[in-house]
């Protein structure tokens, strides 16, 4: 081998000013790295004193990669014209090496052995990305011996793909910047197709001068940790992605969308029939199970692997994995080559041969029962077809966790739907189905239950006929949603009807209703009054006087549209919601022209967190101003104009167009408190009946007038007034100044009196009394013949 000589020029200060190619080859240092630096920094140890005086000897230098290099050196001084030494020309030759000890005499050091045999893949590259060293694990990974790789460029050995390009980019970056790099690399095995992950750490290797001479590499196979993180991330995502709606089918679809293709190539979700209805859990037969396909999906568009179409039912024999999983209450893992698995695949192919090409290659399956709160709801099947790695026990645990999450959400949706159906049925049974006939107003109504997760609310409305052709209009809203609110609504509606039958004014009625809500809260084991609170608007319209009296308990004010006018809200003194207690309610009265339109509604019509109340109220008034062919058409127009597509609360709307009873249908007489005036009153009533053409009703009416006027003169106080009203029924009213209410009693055989009211009750359709501002009114109704 040709011996390499080196030449170096050093100035009088000891700085290197010249560096030959031979010097680079002997020391590894380039001229750019050495020129301008002190020559002393190249020394691995101080030179002998004799070498310094004789300008010749053996020097030990530090090679660029760190190992010592012994050189035979001689120096020749360079002098100027004055004889002064300006520098030295140093020549060097390699010092002959001593004979190397035999392998038997000296083996590798323990540290070298440990690194060589480490299970971690370790290697080193020079700054040109050539292999300089590999341990055994790195050689096994590359599949070749170390001698075949050392000195070769990394890019010449590996295929040009994203993984190798990323590795090479980081390798160059470490060599250029001298900064360590740690990153994770992902790829796919070319032979098996399985995915893998490597955690790679690169660091610079420096010489004594601090220059980067090579790059060290350590690579750890982190595939297991990577897939564990992936499984955990998938499970965390399931918490937010599954169960976003309270819909059974949509929940199953969300499970499918989450796991395809990240966990499975094909997924199906089948549920027992009763889960999709409102029934309680049904017993499952041991010999066969009927399942309903609610969702499936695959990596192939159209899901051609599916044997059962969406929405269809299928009967599963006992040997099938779905029935086994449901019977055992745990996940069933199946792989190709197992008899049960192969039998299942063969049965699927025979059942639906069209999708057989898409099932080719199926090699692994996990079947998981969907169980929630101790009840089996159905089963989920996960298949891997194109993905090469089979399901492991860790995957089974993940599948069970995903199925458990989905099952709880399916059960929540099922329970919500059952409760919603029950609450809706209860509420419909409590709301008026057909409003009673009366002549005071023409009415139309709408009730829209909300579709939100909160459930059915406690909105209600009612139209209640009162005495004297009057009518009560009522709307209310119970706090909360669900069966409890519907039940409370039914109790309040019944209470309003009972209090209306007593004929209380609106403000007094709300006072009694407020007491009732407070008592209900006390009965609910100390429940907060706010939990049972409600709002209510109660109005009474009299078609004779055309006066409307109304009071509000925390309820939105109604709107009124006079004939030919524009809609506006009625200024009502808003009392507190029912259940607050201790605060008064005030009634508001106004006179309405005949044909006025009243709109009573619950807050769901105008209030929503995404809408402005003032804007919604303006839209309501604008819709009421529009002409409509009928009140039903106006109802529909109002809902369309005011409500969003998906209302967030129940909505009750009650429209009423007022009628009036003219003077030709009402007769009034003041009666002096003299028994002799009974006959006068009776005669006046008969004459008016004759004018109305109601002679057939004269006999009963004459008796009723006689009895009621006689009682008023005998037991009441002035002023006394007799009124006849011809409406859908003939109404006789006698008012007096006494607040004492009459009582119906059964007279004994020898009693001289006490039979008047009993006679009235037997001869008329209904009778009663009501308190007035000046006393009381006793009334009786008798039916009129229909035309």
Question: Main attributes?
Answer:
787 residues, 6-stranded antiparallel sheet, 6-stranded mixed sheet, 20 helices, elongated
Describe this structure in words.
With 787 residues, the protein is of the alpha+beta class. It is 32% helix and 29% strand. The strands form six sheets. The chain has a six-stranded antiparallel sheet, sandwiched between helices. Strands 18, 19, 20, 21, 24 and 25 form a six-stranded mixed sheet that branches. A five-stranded antiparallel sheet has the order 2-1-5-4-3.
Helix-strand layout with pairing:
Blueprint: E1 6-11, E2 16-19, H1 21-27, H2 31-34, H3 49-54, E3 56-62, E4 68-79, E5 85-94, H4 110-116, E6 121-126, E7 131-134, H5 136-142, H6 154-157, H7 162-177, E8 181-188, E9 195-206, E10 212-221, H8 223-241, H9 248-259, E11 266-272, E12 289-298, E13 313-316, H10 321-328, E14 332-335, H11 339-351, H12 356-359, E15 364-372, E16 375-384, H13 393-430, E17 441-448, E18 457-465, E19 471-481, H14 483-501, H15 506-523, E20 534-542, E21 547-553, E22 559-561, E23 568-569, E24 574-575, E25 587-591, E26 597-601, H16 613-625, H17 631-642, E27 651-658, E28 666-671, H18 677-692, H19 698-715, E29 720-726, E30 729-736, H20 756-763, E31 766-771, E32 776-783
The beta-strand count equals 32
Specify the number of helices: 20
Mean pLDDT: 85
Strand content: 25-35%
- The structural class is alpha+beta
The coarse overall form would be elongated
Largest sheet descriptor = 6 strands, antiparallel
Our Rg estimate from Cα atoms comes to 50 Å
What percent of residues adopt helix (DSSP H or I)? 25-40%
| Oligomer type | single chain
Uncertain stretches of 5 or more adjacent residues: 102-106, 526-530, 747-754
Strand order of the largest sheet: 13-12-11-16-15-14
- Could you tell me how far the N terminus lies from the C terminus, measured between alpha carbons in angstroms? 136 Å
């Amino acid at each position: 081998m040709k011996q390499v000589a080196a030449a170096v020029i050093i100035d009088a200060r000891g700085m290197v000013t010249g560096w030959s190619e031979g010097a680079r080859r002997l020391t590894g240092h380039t001229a750019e790295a050495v020129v301008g630096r002190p020559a002393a920094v190249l020394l691995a140890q101080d030179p002998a004193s004799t070498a310094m005086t004789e300008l010749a000897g053996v020097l030990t230098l530090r090679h660029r990669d760190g190992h010592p290099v012994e050189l035979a050196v001689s120096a020749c001084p360079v002098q100027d014209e004055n004889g002064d030494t300006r520098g030295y020309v140093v020549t060097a030759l390699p010092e002959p090496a001593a004979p190397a000890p035999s392998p038997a005499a000296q083996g590798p050091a323990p540290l070298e052995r440990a690194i060589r045999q480490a299970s971690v893949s370790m290697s080193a590259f020079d700054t040109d990305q050539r292999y300089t060293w590999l341990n055994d694990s790195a050689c096994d990974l590359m599949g070749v011996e170390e001698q075949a790789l050392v000195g070769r460029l990394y890019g010449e050995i590996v295929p040009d793909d994203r993984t190798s390009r990323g590795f090479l980019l980081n390798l160059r970056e470490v060599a250029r910047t001298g900064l360590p790099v740690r990153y994770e690399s992902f790829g796919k095995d070319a032979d098996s197709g399985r995915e893998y992950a490597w955690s790679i750490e690169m660091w610079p290797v420096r010489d004594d001068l601090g220059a980067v001479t090579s790059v060290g590499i350590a690579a750890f196979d982190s595939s297991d940790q990577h897939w564990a993180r992936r499984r955990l991330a998938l499970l965390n995502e399931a918490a937010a992605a599954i169960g976003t709606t309270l819909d059974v089918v949509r929940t199953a679809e969300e499970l499918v969308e989450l796991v395809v293709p990240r966990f499975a190539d094909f997924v199906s979700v089948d549920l027992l029939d009763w889960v999709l209805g409102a029934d309680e859990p049904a017993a499952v037969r041991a010999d066969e199970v009927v399942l309903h396909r609610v969702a499936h999906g695959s990596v192939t568009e159209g899901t051609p692997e599916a044997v059962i179409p969406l929405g269809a039912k299928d009967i599963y024999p006992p040997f099938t994995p779905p029935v086994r999983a449901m019977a055992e209450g745990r996940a069933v893992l199946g792989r190709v080559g197992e008899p049960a698995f192969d039998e299942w695949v063969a049965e699927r192919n025979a059942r639906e041969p069209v999708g057989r090409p898409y099932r080719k290659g199926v090699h692994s399956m996990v079947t998981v029962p969907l169980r929630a709160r101790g009840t089996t709801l159905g089963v989920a099947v996960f298949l891997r077809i194109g993905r090469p790695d089979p399901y492991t026990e860790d995957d089974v645990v993940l599948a069970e966790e995903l199925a458990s999450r989905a099952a709880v959400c399916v059960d929540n949706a099922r329970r919500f739907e059952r409760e919603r159906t029950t609450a809706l049925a209860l509420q419909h049974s409590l709301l008026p189905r057909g409003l009673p006939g009366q002549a005071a107003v023409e009415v139309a109504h709408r009730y829209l239950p909300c579709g939100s997760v909160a459930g059915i609310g406690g909105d209600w409305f009612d139209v209640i006929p009162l005495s004297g052709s009057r009518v009560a209009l009522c709307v209310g809203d119970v706090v909360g949603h669900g069966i409890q609110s519907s039940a409370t609504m039914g109790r309040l509606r019944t209470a309003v009807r009972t209090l209306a039958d007593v004929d209380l004014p609106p403000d007094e009625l709300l006072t009694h209703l407020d007491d009732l809500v407070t008592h209900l809260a006390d009965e609910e084991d100390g429940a907060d009054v706010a939990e049972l609170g409600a709002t209510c608007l109660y109005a009474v319209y009299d078609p004779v006087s055309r006066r409307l009296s109304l009071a509000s308990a925390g309820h939105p004010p109604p709107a009124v549209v006079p004939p030919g006018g524009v809609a506006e809200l009625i200024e009502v003194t808003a009392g507190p919601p029912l259940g607050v207690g201790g605060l008064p309610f005030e009634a508001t009265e106004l006179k309405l022209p005949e044909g006025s339109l009243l709109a009573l509604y619950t807050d769901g019509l105008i209030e929503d967190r995404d809408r402005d109340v003032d804007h919604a109220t303006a839209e309501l008034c604008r819709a009421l101003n529009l002409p409509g062919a009928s009140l039903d058409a106006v109802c529909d127009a109002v809902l369309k104009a005011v409500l969003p597509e998906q209302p967030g609360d129940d909505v009750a709307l009650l429209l009423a167009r007022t009628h009036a009873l003219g003077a030709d249908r009402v007769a009034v007489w003041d009666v002096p408190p003299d028994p002799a005036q009974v006959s006068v009153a009776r005669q006046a009533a008969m004459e008016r009946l004759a004018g109305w053409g109601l002679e057939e009703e004269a006999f009963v009416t004459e008796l009723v007038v006689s009895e009621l006027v006689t009682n008023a003169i005998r037991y009441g106080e002035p002023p006394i007034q007799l009124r006849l009203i011809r409406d859908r029924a003939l109404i006789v009213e006698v008012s007096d100044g006494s607040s004492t209410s009459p009582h119906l009693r059964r007279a004994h055989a020898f009693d001289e009196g006490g039979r008047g009211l009993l006679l009235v009750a037997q001869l008329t359709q209904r009778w009663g009394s009501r308190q007035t501002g000046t006393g009381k009114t006793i009334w009786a109704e008798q039916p009129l013949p229909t035309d």
